[in-house]
Amino acid sequence: MLYTKVIEYCKSKKIPLSVFEKDCGLGNGTIKGWINSNPRIDSLKKVSEKMGVSIEDLLKE
Prior knowledge:
CATH class: Mainly Alpha
Oligomer: single chain
Number of strands: 0
CATH superfamily: lambda repressor-like DNA-binding domains
Order of helices and strands: HHHH
Radius of gyration: 10 Å
Structural class: mainly alpha
Number of helices: 4
Helix content: 55-70%
Shape: globular
Strand content: under 5%
């Protein structure tokens, strides 16, 4: 699950999710909203770039 991958990344880097969202240029709560809805492609791109992975790798299960 995408949300879980982002949470695990934040835990490994010891940064709060809200800080990660801000660093990506996303609004507070955006990533948590991905639990129930699909993210926009521009948001996925920002997150994947920040994490240093491709969008494809980010979406792999």
